[in-house]
Fold this protein.
Amino acid sequence: MIKGKHLIEVNDFSLEEIEDLLDFADTIIQDQSKYAGLCKGNLIATLFYEPSTRTKFSFESAALRLGAKVIGFADAMTSSVSKGESLVDTIQTISCYADLIVMRHPKEGAPRLASKYSQVPIINGGDGGHQHPTQTLTDLLTIRALKGSLSNLTIGLCGDLKFGRTTHSLTKTMLRYPDIRFIFISPEELRISEYIKEEIGRDRYEETNSLDNNIGKLDILYMTRIQKERFFSEQEYLRLKGYYILDNNKMRMAKKDMIVMHPLPRVNEIAAEVDHDDRAVYFKQARYGMYIRMALIAKMLGKGE
Amino acid sequence: MINVSKLKKGIVIDHIKAGNGYKIFRQLGLDKLEDPVVLLKNIPSHKMEIKDLIKIENDIYLDLTVLGLIDSGVTINIIENGKRKEKIKLELPKKVLGILKCRNPRCISTVEDVGDIEFTLVNPVTKEYQCEYCHEKTSL
């Protein structure tokens, strides 16, 4: 269904297409070895204009586990960009070589621009503070696998909700499922964008700066890092960095079946002691991320139908 | 009251919100026109108390998208043989191509030559348009 399509934002896919992807990821999880050669002969390009070891490794692991080969760069300075080549030219060239392009770029909308010029499917691996669709698909797979469903959930998003693209993308996507309520927990300075609140509608969300007072209401607590690279002032970053720290004391106030998610990497917002709590699922989430990327790469290449 | 004679053939841009006349005049490049053209400012109006009005003594091409963006309340009257042949009521255009620029410093369009950007109307009340790349809202 999604063969040849681009994935720039999650809404590029219908709910049916997302469901199909999640189902295929589940199938891969059941017997990974069965799909080891599914994309043999395919070449995937990973173009990372800003560093992100985690996302890059996740995509590359996914491609390699499907038997595909990988080319690319991890830093724009090691590519022709350093010679002044435009994004459009790079994409037109690389799409002559690869069957699929994964790109991360610091500027918002860069993958959308790339998709206009590429002969092969583009996957957005993150564009500035804008969209990060494969993180959202990872989150969906994690939620569905661990909570059993993508509906009737109270989701608390905590931390940097202003610059955190994962929270924007997840919120917009979860809105498409029934009976989802949001609690946005952030300092005043890092509140979620007005346009997202407008889309949600006043009766489906609460906004607060207190994690303690709200953790008990949540089915999912989605923690985020206060991102240093999004701040112009070091002082402002340092002030907000320690605003929320999830520790065992706070976990005691949470429901027994709440799950704690985090897109990783974390800095200090989740104390290491929480890692031992069964409800802390962020490392499992990283593994689900690889599985959904396997499903995505295969489906976009027209395999695994 | 200043009197400007009736047109025999041409275009009257009427019901311009007072103050917008000069903007429209400039945006449509009427200052470069060789045909007779007048801009009337702050003239009395029943409907609007005061309004601006532009008369052009020729049939020229008008970019209705630009006009709609500056002032969607204007009326355009096409005059032939001294009579109104056609009346056009403007609306805010749903899509705008190549007129607006994205003001978001984080948008790819600020560093890459992306050509004309398509903006989509997202709020007719505030006249806000959304950039096709970064989805940031902007208005004229």
